[in-house]
Amino acid sequence: MRLLTLDSFSKREEPRSKDVGKVDDLEVEKVGKLQEETEGYVKPKPIAQDRRPRSLDTSILLSVDYDGAEGRAYAKLYCLEDGMVYFWYDNTGHKPYCLTDTSLEDVKRIPEIASHKGLEGLEEVKLYDAVNDEERVMTKIIAKDPLSIGGKPSGSIRDILQPRVWEANIKYHDCYMYDTGIIPCMPYRILDGRLIPVEVDLPREAKAFIDSLEGIGGEERDLIERWMKRLEYPVPRMKHLVLDIEVASPYPSRIPDPRKAEYPIVAVALVDSEGSKRILLLEMHGKPREDLSIDGVSVEFYRDEKLLVEEVFKAIDRYPIVVSFNGDDFDLRYLFHRAEHLGFQRSDIPITLSRDSASVRFGIHLDLYKFFFNRSIQVYAFRSRYYENTLEGVASALLGVGKISLDKPISDLSYRELAEYCLRDAELTYGLLSYGGWLTFNLMVILSRITGTTLEDLCRQGVSGWIRNMLEREHRARGWIIPRREDLLKVKGGATTKAVIEGKKYRGGHVIKPEPGVHFQIAVLDFQSMYPSAMQRYNLSYETVRCRHEECRSNIIPGTAHWVCRSRRGVTSLLIGSLKDIRVRWYKSKAKDKSLPSNLRDWYSTVSESLKVLINASYGVFGAENFAFYCPPVAEATAAIGRYAIEETIKEARRLGLRVIYGDTDSLFIEKPDPEKIVRLAQWVKSNLLMDIDVDKVYRYAVFSVRKKNYIGVYEDGSVDVKGLTGKKRNTPEFLKIAFAEMTKLLGQVTNEREFEDVKRKIKDLVRRYYSKLKKKELTLEELAFKIMLGKPVEAYKKTTPQHLKAALLLKSIGREVDVGDIISYVKVAGKIGVKPIELASIEEVDIAKYVDHLRTTFQPILEALDIDFNEAIGLSQLDFYGFSFA
DNA sequence: GCGGACTGCTTACCT
DNA sequence: ACAGGTAAGCAGTCCGCG
């Protein structure tokens, strides 16, 4: 009976070229057995059967879906024992529902409801309304199926009840998970037909840690235990299949339309986590089959596209996790529609499409494109190491390997070229998932467990979706009504402060004007997680800010017209606070613990980074209009507490005699600090503001100009931080970046004030050298290019025509496709338009004067601080010209 | 009709 | 579609100037 585990499939024959017929026979036989194995209540096929329930070993919950034919929810479970996916159908009788504040009797009298075909029943429920701080009796309208609640073009229950309807927009699979309390990516068993969580026992050390927590309430302690159980349970290795397809389009730069699927699928790469690599090629007319062998790869030719696609479908059916890069919008969508054209029955296509996702029938489909494009993931998890949203961009930045570049359309490639190209894409995608000891996948699993979002949704939603899920689940668990956005906005109102930037909703962080010049011995003090701490310590949450109690109105948040509740603990304050506490007190410190083996440290560090993603986003979402719990006063109060904290801390620092030379939002730069005074300041902050500050870094010296958010800091070891300066921006021409880097290297060598004179001379030489390079045009177009990302489609620029757009338009005029997210490389040239893409320019036409201006502005902030005059620096080139070289 | 002062748009950065 | 604050360069407009 083990025959059908994925293991047996992965141990397939040696890589070889093989013929269609053979492959086909083999697979038909296996699929037949798959069906046989699947009998019973628990089954890997959504077929209605009512057999005696059987038990299932420890399995990981992958997702929950609704089976329309069965009329109930089912869970997809990945059995750790045999590596197969099983379906468990709900037998608790859970049904979709929504709420109304109309009484049960009155609801009965609404004829469209009473006679609604989808109505299952009505029920009176007592729930807590946190917005208004009162218990309410609501009527639960239970439906036979999710579509009856909402989603039909007309006649849905929620449309009939409008506007007196609550919780009608929650996806049913989420609703099911909230109510049953089941958590994706956690282990379950099936006993006596019931889905039962596997009890997770915390390691002794972890229990001791929880017991040792001081100054933490019981509620928060319970939460910490809950999080830790989800985080300490290991991430099991699950089997993945990466899939990538190539389509023979006659247009080289145009992506074929997956809805039309008019061109044949000529290659499919299948790379799995067990080491198997297959490439399926379509034999094309007039192109005889080659005897292809690629090391470690099974190359398979197909005479018939239908058979090729069939083979791909069989592979999809065999894996619990199917992975793609942009499969939602392309690969799976194309496969689906192509299969339709090729005459497949719907039931033989293992893919289901919805508006912006594609899913597979047995396992789950993860689209890495959306996950890597997620800003929070980009910034916090991968530290902005990539910034393009393409496979090429992400892979070459993280893996150091890019796509194979093509100079002709797919249809002109030889079989070998095509095979290698397609395989590379799949390998890169696999590499992104398994990268750094499965960092990406671990990250997803951790976020999934904490927020209760399935991996499939996690990939596709943003951080506001994740946090919404976490909060909604918490509401259901507590018996709270999930507030409606419009009620929140109406009751809590908008912002009361004025933003510095026109058009923003409220005032944000405070930036202190730097003291220009060179400053030695700088300690940089940082508030630890300032905004999350503010939310935790000041009890910020949508229901506590501007609460209903008269007696709380005097509890004013400084700098605002808002107050905060004294009597109830805010739910976001509690959730964010507990996540922050376990991160700082357990995972972050474990990640730094050198006595632990490195793989364990990596795990702790991954958990720590995942928590950071959630914690850091927790403030911003409340100011985001699309967030389900959008509440401007919460975001505004958070930022206001931050400003209050830093301003009061500066005052106290000055009282203590500390010299504050710069600060931004949650940081303070202090010159030549007395360590004792720093300790006193930290104590003051702790007892007066209930927050933590510590010395985040120490600079041997730092260089400031008058500009905020622009400085250079040199560490004790000579390494250099460059912040905000033009010389390190990614759109700055390479030669300026190189020149600037040369300068920072010089600055890194300075250890005391005396050495500055020498370095100042060297910097002048450097500037003059690059000036002369420019004058002599000893630079390539590549080095001179500005590389600017096209922020929107070409047609969307209505108000102005920026230079990178002009260059893009020139590219378009010679037939090159340009798209959102493309990086346009152009140089500044003489003439009316003033710019040319580097593909069309020559070095002779480059406008040198413009580049001298850029040389000036790149160096200006630093020269200013060092009291060097740019003109004087390059003026030396005149002397140089006449032979008075200092070199 | 030309150029400087100004505003607004755009991108990339900082926290 | 997590937030606001800052810098820089350019596009486009207004306004004064015989």
The major sheet is characterized as:
7 strands, antiparallel
Q: Given the C-alpha coordinates, what overall shape results?
A: globular
Helix content: 40-55%
Order of strands across the main sheet: 17-19-20-18-21-22-23
Structural class based on helices, strands and sheet pairing: alpha+beta
First and last CA, distance: 81 Å
* Average pLDDT for all residues: 88
Number of helical segments with 4 or more residues: 29
Which regions contain 5 or more consecutive residues with pLDDT less than 50?
Answer: 1-53, 876-887
| Radius of gyration computed on alpha carbons | 31 Å
Measured by DSSP, the beta-strand proportion falls in: 15-25%
What is the number of E strands? Answer: 26
Describe the structure in brief.
The protein is α+β, with helices and mostly antiparallel strands and 887 residues long. It has 29 helices and 26 strands. The structure holds a DNA duplex (15 and 18 nucleotides).
Task: Give a verbal description of the structure.
This protein has 887 residues and is of the alpha+beta class. Strands 17-19-20-18-21-22-23 form a seven-stranded antiparallel β-sheet, with helices on both faces. The radius of gyration is 31 Å and the shape is globular. The model is unreliable at 1-53 and 876-887 (pLDDT under 50).
How is the secondary structure organized here?
Blueprint: H1 6-10, H2 20-37, E1 56-67, E2 72-79, E3 85-89, E4 97-100, H3 104-108, H4 111-114, E5 119-129, E6 134-143, H5 146-149, H6 157-161, H7 172-180, E7 187-191, E8 194-197, H8 204-212, H9 218-232, E9 240-247, E10 265-272, E11 277-282, E12 298-302, H10 305-317, E13 321-324, H11 327-341, E14 351-354, E15 357-360, E16 364-367, H12 368-373, H13 375-381, H14 391-398, H15 415-451, H16 455-460, H17 463-478, H18 485-492, E17 511-512, E18 517-527, H19 530-537, H20 571-592, H21 598-620, H22 632-655, E19 659-664, E20 667-671, H23 675-689, E21 693-704, E22 711-715, E23 720-723, H24 734-748, H25 756-775, H26 781-784, E24 786-789, H27 803-813, E25 823-828, E26 835-837, H28 848-866, H29 870-881
Parallel strand pairs: 9-13, 11-12, 13-16
Antiparallel strand pairs: 1-2, 1-7, 2-3, 4-6, 5-6, 7-8, 9-10, 10-11, 14-15, 17-19, 18-20, 18-21, 19-20, 21-22, 22-23, 24-25, 25-26
The structure holds a DNA duplex (15 and 18 nucleotides).
